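Continuing the series of single-chain predictions for the mutant panel. This is the parent chain; the variants come on the following pages.
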Amino acid sequence: MSNLVVGLLDSGVDPTVAPAECPRHSFGVDDNSDDGAPDLLGHGTALARIILAGNTAARLAVARIFTKSFACTPAAAAAGLDWLVAEGARVVNMSFGLREDRAVLREACERAAAAGIILLGAAPARGPGVYPSSYDGVIRISGDARLRPGEISVLGNLQADFGACPRPMEVDITKGTPIGGASFAVAHATGTALPFLADYPGAGAADLCDYLTTIARFHGPERRTADAPPATPEGDSPCSL
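Parent structure:
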């Protein structure tokens, strides 16, 4: 799995979690560099811990778009995504949501998806959709309180394609950020996807959706399928990718 690069578009990652040689760059903040700037929010570090748990051979590429608050411009997010693609990311974790559609971010997602990059985005459990998870080509992940790390649910509704554990690995590392929700669920889904992507280097987003559907513990909000046969009929994946 050492050649599998995971892109993280967030608040940076503490160097104790991601090695110093991990590609890092800041966008729309500070001086557009990353000279070891700390993860002031702790959010990106918490996500990285989730993604790398059991996947220590995977390599992170970190695009920092948040500093002291969860506010960034769509242009900064788009530039960060473009940079992650250029750094060779196979999959990109986008644990944030903007309320409004912005062409610059939409077009960056379109470029990434067209290049075969797998995009996972945070989707709220209720209410209006957010971006980038509402864009075509992005797998929508929401928090599902029924799930533990490594587990997936198929939601396939207007809100999200899949659910995953909504909690960080360790609550005390989040430095006052919310201790549960879709942002952490995206990281859990990303981490769960990595062994499959390592085993199948040519797999794309639709293949990943099929895999997640196959391993899902729950299908829908009520029906438990832990004892159901693992095979899922073709076409049952909730993703239209």
